[in-house]
């Protein structure tokens, strides 16, 4: 196998062996579902057979199951610039958006605007709409273009809620700058890090973010439906109230008091019994990041995406770049636009190059530096070019939309 010159000094090269990548597959969809780290099945087997199977209910204490949301949270916290004790892993991202948005709105009772943008992932906007109806206090969800967020920040805004890396284009918001502007107007800032955590360096405390949420199953490789995470800035932790007051957020869950008293710290944002099997999978998957510097990930991610863009643009003039050209303005993904993009992506998948498609015309390719090489990226671009040149995508079986795209 010939080594691409840029793979020769790759400090992350050895990491690829930690992942189970099917033979013949180039996986460019780690931004939707991360790859299985090879050691995770054994760890899960141990949790199932030894901890659950043998130790049974004693495992809540003996194997610290009860602290797993906090232990996983701290491991994720290290990757996103959060102080220890500021992150918990729990629930889904959508549910966590609900909790932090409701908590943030109750900290700004006199303000009525939730400011977001049209690059946000729809679930965040749906949650805001549901909350608006539930609260029935006249909140307005203002959705502007990403470049207009700054101008829309004013004294009416209670909460600015944004996804840092746009799921379609990969465009990155300036977290520190926008958070500062929001604070200047007295608003709170919520950041969705679904496409940031494990993908780019994030510094939540440096940026002064108030709240953050994100997914465990994308770049963190926690497995399908892995628990999400939730961050509350230390200075807000004693002030916030969860709208879903559950016993796991109680000061003394096993006192079984009839009245709710929130526990100290971010754990008050947890609700019910933690999902031990999926948290264990996420906890184990995070081992891969233990000795990794997010700056090395970023450097390689930029290099992989630059090579991919160059190769695709050289060989596929019919495609239009759908991501910012400046790598500093992109996350760890690249999109190209093409009217028949859905069929092209299906043809690619049939030939082992797994990316995905987002309506109306976006072919999306995620770059996960832990398990991709420059050679993979060059090969993927060549296969894409060949599929386009021969119109191998132009077949009825590639045009029928699947239920999940
Ligand atoms: C930015 C963003 N937020 C939220 C979600 C939804 O998360 P979940 O389905 O885990 O609630 C996704 C992806 O599904 C996403 O990309
Ligand atoms: N969560 C997903 C799922 O359950 C099925 C298919 C895709 C997903 C995704 O994560 C989609 C992803 N958030 C996106 O950026 O499009």
UniProtKB/TrEMBL annotation:
Organism classification: Bacteria, Pseudomonadati, Pseudomonadota, Alphaproteobacteria, Hyphomicrobiales
Pathway: Cofactor biosynthesis; NAD(+) biosynthesis; quinolinate from L-kynurenine: step 2/3; Amino-acid degradation; L-kynurenine degradation; L-alanine and anthranilate from L-kynurenine: step 1/1
N6-(pyridoxal phosphate)lysine, modified sites: 218
Family, per entry: Belongs to the kynureninase family. Belongs to the DegT/DnrJ/EryC1 family.
Name of this chain's protein: Kynureninase
Free-text function comment from the UniProt entry: Catalyzes the cleavage of L-kynurenine (L-Kyn) and L-3-hydroxykynurenine (L-3OHKyn) into anthranilic acid (AA) and 3-hydroxyanthranilic acid (3-OHAA), respectively.
Source species, domain of life: Bacteria
Quaternary context: Homodimer.
């Amino acid at each position: 196998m010939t080594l691409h010159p840029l793979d020769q000094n790759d400090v992350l090269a050895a990491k690829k062996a930690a992942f189970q990548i099917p033979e013949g597959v180039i996986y460019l969809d780690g931004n939707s579902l991360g790859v299985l780290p090879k050691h995770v099945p054994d760890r899960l087997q141990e949790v199932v057979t030894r901890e659950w199977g043998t130790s049974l209910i004693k495992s809540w204490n003996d194997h610290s199951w009860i602290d797993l949301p906090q232990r996983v949270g701290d491991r994720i916290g290290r990757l996103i610039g959060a102080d220890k004790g500021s992150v918990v892993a729990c629930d889904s991202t959508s549910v966590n958006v609900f909790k932090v948005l409701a908590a943030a709105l109750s900290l700004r009772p006199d303000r009525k605007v939730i400011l977001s943008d049209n690059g946000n992932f729809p679930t965040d906007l749906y949650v805001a709409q549901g909350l608006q109806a539930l609260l029935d206090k006249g909140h307005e969800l203002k959705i502007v273009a990403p470049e207009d967020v700054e101008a829309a920040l004013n004294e009416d805004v209670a909460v600015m809620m944004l996804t840092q890396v746009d799921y379609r284009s990969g465009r990155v918001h300036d977290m520190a700058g926008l958070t500062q502007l929001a604070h200047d107007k007295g608003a709170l800032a919520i950041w969705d890090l679904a496409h940031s955590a494990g993908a780019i360096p994030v510094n939540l405390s440096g940026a002064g973010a108030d709240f953050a949420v994100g997914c465990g199953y994308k770049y963190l490789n926690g497995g399908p439906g892995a628990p999400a995470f939730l961050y509350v800035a230390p200075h807000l932790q004693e002030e916030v109230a969860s709208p879903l007051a559950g016993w796991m957020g109680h000061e003394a869950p096993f006192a079984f008091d009839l009245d709710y008293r929130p526990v100290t710290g971010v754990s008050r944002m947890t609700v019910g019994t933690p999902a031990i099997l999926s948290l264990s999978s996420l906890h184990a998957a995070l081992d891969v990041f233990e000795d990794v510097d997010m700056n090395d990930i970023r450097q390689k991610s930029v290099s992989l995406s630059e090579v991919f863009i160059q190769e695709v643009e050289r060989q596929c003039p019919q495609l239009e770049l759908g991501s910012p050209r400046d790598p500093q303005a992109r996350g760890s993904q690249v999109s190209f636009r093409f009217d028949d993009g859905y069929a092209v992506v299906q043809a690619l998948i049939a030939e082992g190059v797994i990316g995905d498609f987002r309506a109306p015309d976006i072919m999306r390719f995620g770059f996960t530096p832990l398990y991709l090489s420059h050679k993979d990226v060059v090969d993927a671009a060549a296969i894409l070019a060949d599929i386009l040149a021969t119109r191998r995508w132009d077949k009825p079986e590639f045009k029928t939309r699947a239920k999940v795209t």
